[in-house]
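Hey, can you fold this one?
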Amino acid sequence: MRVLVVDAIAPEGLAYLRERKFDVEELLKPSREALRARIGQAEALITRSSTEVTGDLLDHAPRLRIIGRAGVGVDNIDVDACSRRGIVVVNAPHGNVVSAAEHTLGMLLALLRRIPEAHAQLKSLEWNRAIYGGELFRKTVGVVGLGKVGSRVAVRVRAFGAEVLAYDPYIPESRGRDVGARLTDFETLLRHADVITVHVPLNDETENMIAARELAATKRGVRLVNCARGGIIHEGDLLAALTSGHVAGAAIDVWSEEPPRSDLLRRLIQHPRVVVTPHLGANSSEAQVNVAIDVARQLVAFRDGELVEHAVNIPLGDATAVAELRPFLALAECLGRFCVQLDPEHLASVEVTLAGAIPEKDQELLARAVVAGLLDPVMAGPVNLVNAHLAARERGVAVAIRREEETSGYKSLLTVATQTREGRKVIAGTVFDGQPRIVRLRDLDIEFTPEGYILVLSYEDRPGMVGRIGTTLGRMNVNIASMHVGRKTKRGRAIVVLILDEDLEADQLAEVARSVDADFARLIRLP
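Sure. Predicted structure:
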């Protein structure tokens, strides 16, 4: 796989890829024209925050299949545009969380103890011991967002003897107790916190979530810390609150414009009660190695057909269930590919039914795998877990998911029912020893492993039919690896599935069908 690296990452990550036979090209901080000229051959792209990955850039990248962001945020990547093209976007959400949490604590302590002011004065050889800071002990710290970084900040703040209030509407109270924080509503946190630190992503819900109204609701003398994303705290309103004295100080690592150029941001940076750093939260040596290797590992997993754990545009609800889910994903896609070749008419709807020991948290992902199997063979662009729902919507295919208790005696059962102009068709499968296996076609029970060249015939069963099939295929020098029969009554309608060692041409398929007066004949090709 050819990888284009456009922002500097730790050499350990590049070495990891090269050791695994990736073709790695480094094009650091390229111009827009240079990037457009080189990205056309890339199958994978690695970036950090400096390069904007837009829909326009993706138009120049027809071979691109995966983008790795060596860090947490993906603000610089148009994820929707990637999803429409079936490009997987992955990040490294855990590699720099300790670095970000520790930087937050460092900024907070520097702000409280007025360390930058004392440092600057002593550097100018001015001895001034009349600089009185404040303690964190017994302060109330409000943590907005109790995710990977926020929860670590809460634990560390508690170690200083502070009380922690937390606002996060997406986590249970038990999570707050685990990290020593008391969950509360946003307004209560604003009213009672001596220090407020934000740890949420930047999106429509969180942009300017702390502005003039929220600042007015805080205690006079409150201090604010933002080491998450620029724009969460309204910078103009913060400057006004600092100037009025309502906000006693702020510690800021991230900015709405990076590097800051506007007059407003320059005045905020130079304010005497503001501690600043140039977006260094993730910039520890350890974090840079961690995120580089994390992204590299995901590129290897993607190339090798594994499910990447940190894809931001694949709906993986429970990463711990990945290993358990893989065979069911393979089964789901296989059933979809089998269906579309068995009945290639216009697809109106698909219903996916899950029963038994199939993880409940990832039903949507399994449905996407079915749809990818159904649509990828019949569409010009790739259809995969990323864009399956979009592809179905664009083609007017309705997708439904449901669960039921009946497993027909199997430990797990995944059933796909498609509706086409030919009517409703059903196929079902399960997983044996980690391998997909089809157990039902139409209304007949029949078991076989779906792989390679699969000949499906339907005819009225009578003596000599199997012999005719074998003789006809023998004349064509086509070997039968295995044969499976499904029927309800003796000498009634039968479905015969033959696993072949060789492919069949259209005229050969027609000849086999004539030999047994088959009313249905299809050759299914599966990886």
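The longest strand covers residues 347-356. Let me know if you want another pass with a different chain boundary.
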